[in-house]
Design a protein that fits this description.
This is DUF4339 domain-containing protein. It holds the Pfam family GYF_2. InterPro entries: DUF5362, GYF, GYF-like_dom_sf, GYF_2. Keywords: Membrane, Transmembrane, Transmembrane helix. Helix content is about 70%, strand content about 5%. The protein is an alpha+beta fold and about 230 residues long. The protein has 2 domains: about 5-90, no CATH class; about 100-230. Strands 2-1-3-4 form a 4-stranded antiparallel β-sheet. Helix 1 (about 20-25) packs parallel to helix 2, helix 4 packs antiparallel against helix 5 and helix 5 runs antiparallel to helix 6 (about 190-230).
Length: about 230
């Protein structure tokens, strides 16, 4: 079933079903000059000029003609010219089509969820690093011969901190991406869409660089282990 969007005072509303528009039109709450759009239409059009809706407003006009003259004389409402509407159709390039916004909004909860989970992981690893550091300091102060163990413990602390940083940046980029999607859903501006795409690009760029670094490290370790094994034979 098609979902319809309509413009009220220059602001986009919807989506709503065709049956809802029909009910509003029957109750006199939806004018035939109201601009509407659905997926598949190249531009926004008055509701009375859209084939799916023309029959609704045609029936209303016939009822108006059949009514007594005394009841038909109604002060006409002022309709602002189309040029004064602030909202522009998808073809102008200044706004974003409802389908794009809907697709991004549907992904926002999942993006936000992963961002929160990553931040929680950062907090857990930071707490673990602090506990390790306190343990290393306590062990080093209580044992005179624990220099080697303390060094290994300190190395473990450094590794935990570095790992938490690797989780922090993806969490930050995902959180920024979710916030930009929220801005886009409110403003529907092209600039906010570009900001959302920039945030997404930063996330995947970081993941790509990190993946390459991990692959290089694994390759180096593989070569070292292979070389050490060949020397034994």
């Amino acid at each position: 079933m098609s979902q319809w969007y309509y413009s009220v005072d220059g602001a986009q509303q919807g989506p709503v079903a065709l049956e809802q528009i029909s009910q509003w039109a029957t109750a006199g709450q939806f004018d035939g000059q109201t601009l509407v759009w659905r997926e598949g239409m190249s531009q926004w059009l008055p509701a009375a000029k859209v084939p799916e809706l023309a029959g609704i407003f045609g029936a209303r006009r016939q009822q108006a003609y059949a009514a007594p003259v005394a009841e038909a004389v109604v002060q006409p409402q002022y309709a602002a010219p189309a040029e004064t509407l602030n909202y522009q159709g998808p073809s102008t390039g200044e706004s974003v089509t409802p389908r794009i916004i809907a697709a991004l909004v549907e992904t926002k909860p999942w993006v936000r969820l992963f961002s929160v989970l990553l931040f929680i992981a950062v907090g857990i690893m930071g707490l673990a690093g602090l506990i390790q550091l306190l343990g290393v300091v306590g062990f080093a102060s209580s044992s005179r011969r624990g220099g080697g163990v303390a060094a290994l413990g300190l190395l473990s602390v450094v590794g935990t901190v570095l790992l938490s940083l690797l989780y922090f940046f993806p969490a930050m980029y995902l959180g920024r991406y979710a916030s930009r999607i929220a801005d886009l859903s409110r403003s529907r501006r092209q600039s906010d869409l570009e900001a959302a795409m920039e945030a997404q690009k930063s996330y995947w760029k970081f993941i790509g660089i990190l993946t390459l670094i991990v692959i290089v490290i694994y390759a180096i370790v593989f070569v070292v282990v292979l070389g050490a094994g060949s020397r034994r034979f």
